[in-house]
Amino acid sequence: MIIFQNISLKPYNTFGIDVKAEQFVEVKTIEEVQVLCTTFLLHERKILVLGSGSNILLTNNFCGMAIKISLMGIDIIQEDDKYAWVKAMSGEVWHDFVMYCVNKNFGGLENLSLIPGCVGASPMQNIGAYGAELKDTFEELTAVNIESGLLVKFSNAECKFGYRESVFKNEVKDKYIIVSVTFKLAKNPVYNISYGAIKETLKQQGIIEPGLKAISDAVISIRKLKLPDPKVLGNSGSFFKNPEISQQEYDVLQEKFPDIHGYLLPGNKVKVPAGWLIEQCGWKGKRTGNTGAYKDQALVLVNYGNATGEEIWNLALAIQESVQQKFGIHISTEVNVIA
Ligand code: EPU
Question: Could you give the maximum distance between any two Cα atoms of the chain, in Å?
């Protein structure tokens, strides 16, 4: 384990922001994570845990230690007639892990195909797409307590999953480093193809009885159509979360904006697509300097070349402000903004 000084983080974040970390270390085993925590007293330092860096915006040089998680391995740890429990180490690329499960015919993750990022980051914000969320198949995770260096397990309930939320973004933020995640996957899965775009794609392909591979392929093609490939155009997926407002607020907005649409949630709340709100404010496809809201999905901010984190953050603030002005709705960031 070598600790490097003043390393550029450009290869380690999908926005492609060129800032430096004061210190940088790559960890490949659980023991290395534990040693790092106790020997270097990580709990007393500023740290940045990096998986694929696909959900962060770096706005400045990082005055602390960046830790690249490269723990690898996938194991089927238990099986019965109905389920397989599969454990993946946190450095595994999320999509590779999904492909492993699809190829084994273990169901539950196929709708989450092609989401950028690593396994270890997936529970942090309870990743979700096309009608599925990580929490639907999540069994447990193992993490290192940064202060003590000891291993701790978190069950599904203990993670307190919500919409792009978990305990790791709230109560225990910066207290643990996730080292592995176990999923409970179905051997006879019930397919989740209710999401309009999936249904439509399968229909176009003439597939009447899809299997896991066909659903995964459909999701991959939908994502490729709407979302920019970070290798081509730097981005961090959805920059904002879809806001939730009360039914009353929604009714008032609908009077004024008859085209608005929303999804009813329990508790008389309505989730409004932030992409639509941003598009209505004129940002979709508009370029501001080296950055802008993507032409096919306004919720995604992109780096056209040499954007700085500050430039992207300023655009995000301007977008937030205009959505607030036009609709009276605050859209909060989904991406983790690192100052
Ligand atoms: N829309 C617009 N204009 C836009 C973008 C979207 O009008 O520029 C409208 C669409 O017409 C549609 C609605 O907004 O009616 C929803 O759009 P979409 O299906 O693309 O999904 P989203 O709500 O914008 C969420 C997730 C994505 C996930 C998709 C598919 C969040 C913050 N984002 O986006 O997740 O892939 O659903 O399930 O919940 C991510 O988290 O990084 C991410 C990409």
Answer: 61
Q: State in words which class domain 234-338 has.
A: alpha beta
If one counts every other C-beta atom within 10 angstroms of the C-beta of residue 332, the result is 11
47 CA from centroid of ligand 1 (Å): 31
> What pTM was estimated for this model as a whole?
0.95
The closest alpha carbon to 274, from 311, 315, 244, belongs to 244
Closest atom of ligand 1 relative to the 273 alpha carbon = 14
Residue nearest to atom 2 of ligand 1 (CA): 276
Quick check: is 22 catalytic? Answer: no
Q: Which of 337, 79, 107 is nearest to 215 (CA)?
A: 107
Burial class (CB in 10 A: 0-12, 13-18, 19+), 74: middle
List the chain domain ranges: 4-69, 74-186, 234-338
Q: Are 41 and 61 in contact (CB under 8 A)?
A: no
Mean pLDDT computed over 1-28: 97
Residue 178: closest CA among 188, 187, 190, 169? 169
Nearest to 228 by CA among 127, 319, 330, 296: 296
**Pair 114, 95: CB distance under 8 Å:** yes
Q: Spell out the alpha helix ranges (H) of 228-303.
A: 247-256, 274-280
| CATH no., domain 74-186 | 3.30.465.10
For the segment 48-96, what is each residue's pLDDT rounded down to a tens digit?
999 999 999 999 999 999 999 999 999 999 999 999 999 999 999 999 9
Residue 81 host element (H or E): none
In CATH terms, the fold of domain 4-69 is 3.30.43
Centroid of chain to Cα 67? 18
CA dihedral over 231, 48, 91, 198, signed as positive or negative: negative
**CA 200/CA 218 separation, integer angstroms:** 9
**C-alpha 329 to ligand 1 mean position (Å):** 17
